[in-house]
Amino acid sequence: MKKMFCSFVFCCLCFWRLVVFADAVKNVSVKEGDSVTLESGVTQIKERDLITWIFEPLKTKIAEIDKDAGIFKTSDVPDGRFRDRLKLDHQTGSLNITNTRTTDSGEYKVTISRSTGGTTTIRFNVTVYARLPVPVLRRDCSSSSSSSCSLVCSSVVNVCDVTLSWYKGISVLSSISVCDLSISLSLPLEVEYQDKNTYSCVLNNPISNQTTHLDINTLCHTCAEGHAPCCDSVEAVLRLAAAVLLVNDVRAARGQMKKTEEI
Ligand SMILES: *[C@@H]1O[C@H](CO)[C@@H](O)[C@H](O)[C@H]1NC(C)=O
Ligand SMILES: *[C@@H]1O[C@H](CO)[C@@H](O)[C@H](O)[C@H]1NC(C)=O
Ligand SMILES: *[C@@H]1O[C@H](CO)[C@@H](O)[C@H](O)[C@H]1NC(C)=O
Ligand SMILES: *[C@@H]1O[C@H](CO)[C@@H](O)[C@H](O)[C@H]1NC(C)=O
Question: Whose C-alpha lies nearest to ligand 3, atom 10?
């Protein structure tokens, strides 16, 4: 019986600790380049209040306020990633990070020692999401047939947390999401020439997206069908050069696709 009671108390303690812990971590998402303010939760700093901000990934103090001693300062980490981008609100002790970069992601901790006694700690889990490029559509002439047009939507991104999808109207047809060092996402789609649906390729992360709409009429009539014979020798040389470039392009694209398939 006693043993049961002990485990009950132990569980309660664990649970209490979990709840307190969960409450004290705030998730903050921000788009690269935007600014963000981490709120200290204080409305007005009092004399003898001490506030310290720590960037946890490097265990480095990045800001402190000691009103009594007249200290209100921010300081960079050794690698200089915050250079001129940290601002302290002198009234609340909140920390504003301007022009955010993905390398600002991580946990931030503020500790507030009140003059009235007691210490509060708030943790912020900050995630800075990279700006997304617009996905690129191209026709895949090598596998298009007379009745259907093969397309590829692709995007080169150097971050995780992104998904590339084909939409037909508002429903997802297919999507791909890879997290690897060399991230080149590409996703095929086959459409009939006469298809009247609206298709779009969307690249998205948890907070934003970039969309490219497919215009079948334009994109599905761009495969080179061979050129009319031409007489100007300069133009012929230029065409030859262009053809070589095109072949190289296609080869590069194929290499890229192979790589993507291997992932
Ligand atoms: C913060 O994010 C983590 C992981 O995504 C999640 O488990 C947690 O519940 C979130 N916390 C809050 C307060 O939303
Ligand atoms: C952070 O500070 C900048 C520059 O003072 C200001 O423009 C911006 O609005 C602040 N950001 C937030 C989220 O308060
Ligand atoms: C912080 O947030 C990110 C993105 O939501 C999540 O993947 C990560 O697990 C969180 N970390 C913590 C310590 O909550
Ligand atoms: C893309 O973002 C916009 C808002 O910026 C939103 O209205 C839309 O639903 C999003 N689309 C997708 C496919 O996530």
Answer: 125
Ligand 3 site, residue 125, Cβ cutoff 6 A: yes
Shortest-distance Cα residue to atom 9 of ligand 2: 35
Q: For residue 261, is it within any domain?
A: no
CA dihedral for 248, 252, 257, 261, sign (positive or negative)? positive
Which residue of 37, 99, 128 sits with most ligand 2 atoms within 8 Å of its CB, as the best mutation to test the pocket? 37
258 inside domain: no
pTM over 0.85: no
Residue that terminates a domain, selected from 80, 98, 129? 129
CATH code at position 101: 2.60.40.10
Domain span including residue 104: 24-129
- Across the chain, which has 263 residues, the per-10-residue mean pLDDT values are 51 45 78 96 91 96 94 94 95 96 96 89 95 93 82 87 94 87 84 93 94 93 50 36 42 44 40
**For the stretch 159-194, what's the b/e string if a residue is b when 16 or more beta carbons lie within 10 angstroms of its beta carbon?**
eeebbbbbbbeeeeeeebeeeeeebbbbbebebeee
Instruction: Give distance in angstroms: CA of 109 to centre of ligand 4.
Output: 32
Task: State the pLDDT at residue 79.
Answer: 93
Q: Would you put residue 70 in left (φ > 0), alpha (ψ -120 to 50) or beta?
A: left
Q: Are residues 143 and 125 in the same domain?
A: no
Say yes or no: CB of residue 202 within 6 Å of ligand 4: yes
Q: How far is the CA of 125 from the centre of ligand 3 (A)?
A: 6
